[in-house]
Write a structure and sequence with these properties.
By secondary structure, this protein is α/β, with parallel strands linked by helices. It contains 9 helices and 5 strands, in the order αββαβααββααααα. It has helices spanning about 10-20, 65-75, 85-90, 95-105, 135-140, 140-165, 170-175, 180-190, 200-214, and strands at about 25-30, 40-45, 80-85, 115-120, 130-135. Helix 2 crosses helix 6 and helix 3 (about 85-90) packs across helix 4 (about 95-105). The longest helix has 24 residues, at about 140-165.
Length: about 210
């Protein structure tokens, strides 16, 4: 009986390629939990002959290692990054917005993949190809690990840019998550156009402000 190596492996991709798939993409999203900013997804098609060493779930990597691996992935793989906006998150809910970002990432690849390996237990709607959902995929599937790294780096950079436009919320370090300093800034500086109004802490502050002005 064969054993699966500890950590992410290429078995899902190898089996799909052996069954006739020509292009297998890993897909992951980042940013479901923050109070501000879009949700970001990446789709990555790895070259089986040129897989960067050390790929893992982005959360298991240091910031420095994550950045180095991002650059290594971009150099040897086909990647696509897409977002769902704060407005879309508030309109259709964060779960559906995350799935929308993943579908957009797949659609933005140069050619549709034959199969998408998707992190989680749900497949996005309207995918341009067949899909296979893998629970904790970023920790067991190399293509999804690569997608998790690309999505994390790209969203962090986007939040850093937004932090320059809206200083004081700490987005350059908290990436929009509800850290203590971010919550204090929300109370003191108020809600920005990049805050998710459907998220309870933001909604509550807007409600308080409305009651004060009424």
């Amino acid at each position: 009986m064969s054993t699966i190596a500890h950590g992410p492996h290429f078995q899902f991709e190898t089996e799909a390629l052996a069954a006739g798939a020509l292009r297998v993409a890993g897909v992951d999203e980042v940013g479901r939990g923050p109070l501000a900013g879009p949700v970001t997804a990446a789709a990555v098609i790895l070259d089986p002959e040129r897989i960067p060493e050390g790929l893992n779930d982005s959360k298991a990597l240091t910031a420095k290692r994550r950045a180095a691996l991002h650059d290594a992935i971009v150099e040897v793989a086909e990647i696509s990054v897409a977002h769902a906006s704060v407005e879309e998150i508030d309109e259709i809910n964060i779960l559906r917005a995350a799935q929308l970002a993943m579908t957009r990432a797949l659609e933005s690849l140069s050619r549709p993949p034959c199969l998408a390996l998707v992190d989680g237990n749900l497949l996005p709607r309207d995918m341009p190809c067949e899909g296979h959902a893998i629970v904790k995929g970023d920790a067991v599937c190399l293509s999804i690990s690569a997608a998790s790294i690309v999505a994390k780096i790209r969203r962090d950079r986007l939040m850093w840019d937004l932090a320059q436009q809206y200083p004081g919320y700490g987005w350059e370090t908290n990436a929009g998550y509800g850290s203590k300093s971010h919550m204090a800034a929300l109370e003191n500086l108020g809600v920005t156009p990049h805050h998710r109004r459907s998220f309870k802490p933001v909604h509550n502050i807007l409600y308080q402000e409305k009651n004060v002005t009424d």
